[in-house]
Amino acid sequence: MKTKFIHIIFLAFIFSGMNVCLQGQDVPGPGAPGNLSASDHPWDHGEKIDLEWLLSKDDPGTVAFYSIFKSDPANPGSFLFVGNTDPGVNRFTIEKLNREETYFFKVTVMDDSGNESEPAVTLTAISPSRQWFDGRRFPLFIITLIFCGSVVYWIYHARSGRPLQIRKIAGLEAVDEAVGRATEMGRSILFIPGIQDMNEIQTIAGITVLSRVAKVAAEYDAKVEVPTSRSLVMTAARETVQASFLTAGRPESYNQDLVYYVTDEQFGYVAYVQGMMVREKPAACFYMGAFFAESLILAETGNTIGAIQVAGTAMPAQLPFFVAACDYTLIGEEFFAASAYLSGEPDQLGSLKGQDVGKVIVAAGIIIGVFLLTLGTIVGPETSLGTAFITAAEYLKSVILT
Fold this sequence. Notes:
Layout: H1 2-24, E1 34-40, E2 49-54, E3 63-72, E4 75-85, E5 91-94, E6 105-111, E7 120-121, H2 138-159, H3 170-185, E8 189-192, H4 201-220, E9 224-228, H5 231-247, E10 259-261, H6 266-280, E11 284-288, H7 294-304, E12 308-313, H8 319-325, E13 328-331, H9 333-336, H10 338-343, H11 346-379, H12 384-400
Parallel strand pairs: 8-9, 8-11, 9-10, 11-12, 12-13
Antiparallel strand pairs: 1-2, 2-5, 3-4, 3-6, 6-7
Helix pairs in contact: 2-11, 3-4, 4-5, 6-7, 11-12
């Protein structure tokens, strides 16, 4: 019994000694990557660096992933984590770098046990440089060529005398009806070119429509009254109305006192126009330009007096009020297309048709992007195929469509 007890103590002593020896030994880490090199990424905006290295001697084998780091420009002695790559991959592109800074890079290997290898470090600092052309945006260059080519083609097509099919815009077709109604009733026509100055594109579009309204009014011998909230708009409106009366062959009927300035103050202007509408009861009211809170006030007043109303604006928040209270409303792009629609000039009509090609390209890009994102979500972002779909959709959104 005593001998057996001594044997047990002896064996325990041996095993404990072996454990101490094993704990004292360092477990070897994975083999380090070799020959790390950094080069400027070609055909970019000057914000990328390409890294390449030799694979670890343990790859394939126990390598879990490669970790990539870049030096911190604010603290050159430290490195910032950038990302990981899978085993078997020996290339990595680092993005969003500052071309005014220089960088060092290092790559380490992590094995399945969590051990990290010695780093492979670049020997010299490097900074990205900007090239003449950004290769990522080459598809955008092709789309631009297609768009510009379509505009030139349709302008040439229109100049050759061949007819272009343009969708009818009800609000513009109603100009003759509204002016004719005012003439029959012996009442005036009210035209409001918005409340912004001439640096607003919507005001310019409104003045274009005013040219058509004034020309028809001159032909029908009707009175057009144009109160404005900006002095420069008053000057432009007077010249436009005068030119329209001259074109219609009725220059003697033009009265510049009917195109006048009221005030720059928003609700002071609206109060005057509202009172004038209630007193004079114009038979037709046109609201063409940029509007804000006064849109509902004007449209409701015109509706109350029984006038036929035609509105046009690109202000999304005001469109519901015009749609609800007016007889016809030009929504966004229809308003800006009025110039080409009313003039019938080949150059403007050709440009309008060419822009439609651009809209088709954008719509196709949106549909493809939604389809790719849907596929990426269905397949799963954690899979390589799903990641590829999502990456393609992001490229389409950030490079092609913006």
